[in-house]
């Protein structure tokens, strides 16, 4: 019996993707650059960043696989075995978004929900994923509904607030002096001219988490901007740390609300680069635990999927 005969709804779980080995970095970087190979210097820089992370281990792929599996288990628990079937689709690595849709089609799926492992919406991020998914789905006769955002889902906010409280406890007596610094991946500044909701949704998530955790000292900053020659949203986390140092802030808890997994932008940009930068300026920098396959995060995803699937529009 095909999956379609059971009338299962497909769930395309999308994320950025990562190479599976150091040998795959060049092909991955070339795909990000829309087919233009990186220069030797650019390739060396990215390869060295990956190499710095636990000797080149690639946790994002493992974490993403784990998230998809955990979401499948959660959907089974909430909606019953076989009601939803999860497929993975990556933006810059196999299985690509189109591969995930093709796998659904091969299994006879006719209805699907697309969700991205990023809580906040931007036309340049989640919007781009969804366009690719819906374009491919239409070729296969699959009706695919998009979950645009879930940045204020109660389970997400509670999971993050618990991590903030836990992280602040690590500072002991300096807890009250510690600033919570929320962060997210920067995007080209031109999104501000497009009335894009990305910035507002990130601030809304940050405020909700701070309120839930009882945090009064908090700020928001950007990180991991691309090197494209055009302006990106700022200030960058290193600029923010420089200013906090000048203001005499002794300790910071970085809370990357725009990310849900341990990956390069977290394990290198925060744990290595930002932490070293902060230490050189007398600031103790710690980071919250990432969500990865946290049960509450899986519940936020599953409830978002089920809620959209059951809507009649």
UniProtKB/TrEMBL annotation:
Pathway: Porphyrin-containing compound metabolism; protoheme biosynthesis. PANTHER family: FERROCHELATASE, FERROCHELATASE, MITOCHONDRIAL. The lineage of its organism: Bacteria, Bacillati, Bacillota, Bacilli, Bacillales. Its EC number is 4.99.1.9. It catalyses: Fe-coproporphyrin III + 2 H(+) = coproporphyrin III + Fe(2+). InterPro entries: Ferrochelatase, Ferrochelatase_AS, Ferrochelatase_C. It comes from Cohnella silvisoli. This is Coproporphyrin III ferrochelatase. Transmembrane segments: none annotated. Pfam families: Ferrochelatase (PF00762). Fe(2+) binds at residues 185, 265. NCBIfam families: hemH (TIGR00109).
